[in-house]
Amino acid sequence: MYLPFFFVLTLLVSLHSATAGDYCVADLKQPEGPSGYSCKTPAKVTVDDFVFHGLATVGNTSNIIKAAVTPAFSAQFPGVNGLGLSIARLDIAAGGVIPMHTHPGGSEVLVVIQGCIKAGFIDSANDVYVKTLNRGDVMVFPQGLLHFQINAGKYPAIAFVSFSSPSPGLQITDFAFFANGLPTELVTGTTFIPGDVVKKLKAVLGGKN
């Protein structure tokens, strides 16, 4: 017995709707808002939206911090949009550092893949938690708290970090103070750092006095 045409059509529409509701692949042609990107039309979604190849590439550490972050956030990896997670790769050369920073939008889990990394964070009570991590060690950094990673060995270190957000955000404290046009007197007045030191740091990081 053949099923009525309208029943088959309704079933197909229901299955399509269920599939489309499983994910929200980022439409990178649209601006990102507080809740993420708009969803790409399901008919335009491909398997490549759910695959990211960038973490196999060594980051360029020839910079002032001797470190590199390769993100696989929703802007680079559309398939994680709306899923509450993302990942990134850290490359830290000998003597390198990921400076004190925060991720306002998500907590972080770090897994050391190669080398030795000293990592830590400061909680809202100003208690400090620091640990030297070796290959296979894992450390968590709660959302919004200041934290850092330093290469504690003589050779390049690699780590993978996952986040509880597809767009966790990033604010590096040094850059926030010294890599912009915030007047020297305001930096001095709010941090108690002498003006001559502020000016030197601004010169190093490209800020304006």
TrEMBL record:
Keyword annotations from UniProtKB, A to Z: Apoplast, Disulfide bond, Manganese, Metal-binding, Secreted, Signal
Alphabetical list of InterPro entries matching this protein: Cupin_1, Germin, Germin_Mn-BS, RmlC-like_jellyroll, RmlC_Cupin_sf
Disulphide bonds in the chain: C24-C39
Gene3D superfamilies hit by this protein: Jelly Rolls (2.60.120.10)
Binding-site list for oxalate: H103, E108
Signal peptide: 1-20
Binding-site residues, Mn(2+): H101, H103, E108, H147
Cupin type-1 domain ranges (all copies): 53-199
SUPFAM superfamilies, per the entry: RmlC-like cupins
Name used for this protein in its record: Germin-like protein
Species assigned in the record: Spinacia oleracea
Recorded name of the encoding gene: LOC110777410
